[in-house]
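TEACHING EXERCISE
Course module: macromolecular assemblies
Task: Read the component lines below, then compare them to the predicted structure of the full complex.
Student: A.B.
Group: 4
Components provided:
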Amino acid sequence: MSNTDIVLHVENVTMQFGGVMAVNDLSLDVPKGKIIALIGPNGAGKTTAFNCITGVYEPTNGLVEFCGLPMVRNHPRGKMKKLYQGEHADLYTHDPAIAPSPDKITELGIARTFQNIRLWKSMTVFDNVLTAKHMRAKQNVFSATFRANAKEEKRMRDETEALLAEQDLLQYRDELATSLPYGLQRRLEIARALATSPKLLLLDEPAAGMNPQETHELAQFIQQIQEKYDLTVFLIEHHMDLVMQISDYIYVIDFGSEIAQGVPQEIQNNQRVIDAYLGVSEE
Amino acid sequence: MDKTLQKDPAKKIGAAIAVCLIAALYIFLILLDNVLPANGFTLMLIPVLKKGAIYSLICVSMNLLNGFTGLFSLGQAGFLLVGAYAYAIFAIPSDQHAAVYQYFDGGAIGFSIPEALAKVLGENAGAFLGAVICIILAGLVAAVFAALIGIPVLRLKSDYLAIATLGFAEIIRAIFQWNGVGPVTNGSNMLRKYTSFSAIKIGEIKLATAFPFFIAMICIGLIVLLINSSYGRAFKAVRDDEVAAEAMGISLFKHKMLSFVISSFFAGVGGALLAMYQTTIQANAFKSAMTYEILLIVVIGGIGSVSGSCIASFLYIACNEWWLRFLDSGGVTLFGKEITVPFFRDGFRKVVFSVIIMVIVLFFSRGIMGDKELSFAGLVRKLRKKKTAEAAEGGAGK
Amino acid sequence: MSAFFQANLPYLLSGISVGGQYALIAIGYTMVYGILRLINFAHGDVFMVAGLVMVYATTAMPMYLSIPLVLIVTVVLGFTIERVAYKPLRSAPRMSVMISAIGVSYLLQNCALYFTGGLPQMYPTIPWLSDSVTIGPATTKVVTLVTPFLVLVLVIALVRFIQKTKIGMAMRAVSRDFETSQLMGIKINSVISMTFVIGCFLAAVGSLLYFTNYPSVVPTSGAMPGLKAFVAAVFGGIGSIPGAVIGAFLIGICENIIKGLGSNWTVFSDAFTFVLLIIVLLVKPTGIFGEKATDKV
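Instructor-supplied answer key:
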């Protein structure tokens, strides 16, 4: 694979909180147009890995590249210099650290959803999606206040309407986002992420709390939007059915470190993965 | 959305009602200043109207920050002070400088904007335009202060932000009272003799009451436009969930800063109007108690409601300066009879007030309006629904 | 050097004394914040009310009855405020509770205004504490010397109380994790009440010492010391009692030294506290002894 085909490249990323290694030397690649999954038992460090990629946390060490360009980079600094227990501590020291805030990363083209749904609770379904378009608008605060951006505002509203229609959410447009049933809230969160026009979509446990029927529908939905928007999808999931059904490639982590990677069949038969999920029986 | 709204007749009727009411209000205000006799009633009404309009603006500006952006800032008194001082400093006529800055050899500033304009445009137009320019200047100076304070402070969260902004307000107050800047601020002495409401006229028509309404209405109108724009939605997103807002590409610092600076601009304008109203100002009056008072009015009106803030401001000022005065006076006059009530004396009004506020805070925490807005379109819609319901009941069918 | 010392000794002494008095108020702030995450804006006004109660009590009864009465009334007031104004809002957003605290502060100040008629109330002379003593070049009141020692004794007693007794242990647990402690069967409400009782008791003691140095009490007397004590608590790391005490002494001493710099700088003696606050918040928001809390995404 050439470098341009890799949308997201994670290299030796380590996140250490005090003495705890939440993510340990994680490396992975997310190729363009694929659905890649990151799985692992509870507390394995999946969400932390997401947070390192999306700028919520600054990783202690490592590099994240987006479409071939370095996006996040850090090496152990300050207090961490002494505390650092991970590997490759000297790999990134000669380059300056880069730590953009989450909004900058979203602007580059990465959108995400959250494990515990984080919709804007006082806003309607329509406004939730519309507000996510704010970042891409060219207006400034004066043109917006004096309505000099009417054309752009209208375009954003039309696009929002179209997006909602496509996600079967149009009938709820004027309801409060948090009044929707759980499954629809998940879907709305994905719609909101799509509104930022991403290249890469990160889904944090999109099927959490869903029954098998809903999970099945979600799997189809993810595949649909992936094709329609020419997206690359990187997801964290617990539901093995969903992961096995839609993923092109799977990374498995436990206690912050990678324990396996491969296509779904390989993962299903991997003894280390089975042990990590079910526990190793003591002889 | 736009399409449907344009066709919505209720919205049109509502807008028409609003325009008529505003026109009627201004006619009434101008009559009040010029024609209506000065009796006990108008003597109470005029100050309440003026101060109510000014407080409406101040409360809405605070609501923009606390209610719509979710930044719990307690620095409003500081920005009012900056605005009031900026206005006064540029509006004191130069021949009064020696008298006002008597301890500072006439002060460091040798000009006055309304005066300079009066030379060119004539007295009335100069005073009017000069006042407007000074008011805008007051807003800008307050906004600059806010931008400087915002850089360090806006990174802090909830209660730390509250206490830090409160601290900055106190620091501002100390700086303005410091003799080192006395040639500009007159130290801890009061500023006076600047252009006040009574100097605002067009020809022979006095606009002393209409002017603060006019300025406050324009400013509140701008704030409403902002709140309903894309930026307003972004502010609400920041308020509802910072993490989600940031993940959706809304820069927290940029938007918090915008809200803080804009809110402070309008607080500065409010401060300037307050200075005009009071005719003298002194930094010592702008204590944290003033911020608390404004905050409590915002809470009474409903955090996140512009119309709530306005209603609450007028109610608060009217009760405070007029309707509840009798509580301080030792007795009530009911049907021409003097009744002395033993515990009615100085300060009782404020006690009653604080109790009402506590009741609202504890039991009606949504305030008068909650986060809803008063809209004539909404009223029209409600009335229509009622009508159609009645018609339906009458057996006319649909 | 010695000239400097001689010139500044009076300021240093009163700084230590005021610092000790701030410390007693700051403990109330820091304990309440530690448990409820609430800036109790009314605490400074409780302190002021304690001063007023003393004024009124001494007109009606002898000193040996007035002092216990002041302590009791203040404690009851603190307890009542918590039950009436904060308890109903336990599940409400933090902003509502803070607004409620501001409301209580407003109420107490206005009640004080009503009862005093807006006139400054002469603070009574407490025998012995108000006597003058001369130390080297400085003449001061006994209270100045007594304060630091009394503060030390009270703080040691409090720290031991929190470490050794069952309710102290419960307090530490609640400040660590509110929900879990509740699940573990700790009676949250009695722990919170106890916190207010201790905080107000110390504020009452503080007011006895503080107002002895001042001629009178006015309704706004509590606002500034209250804010400064809060800053002290933030400085020391909110939630930490030794931190609050150290912060309070530091603020007391610094502001009095500034007063000693000359009349041109006196306006900044109050503002200095806030400058310090902002520096602390920006450089080390957790204060000297505070612990870092992280939000989970």
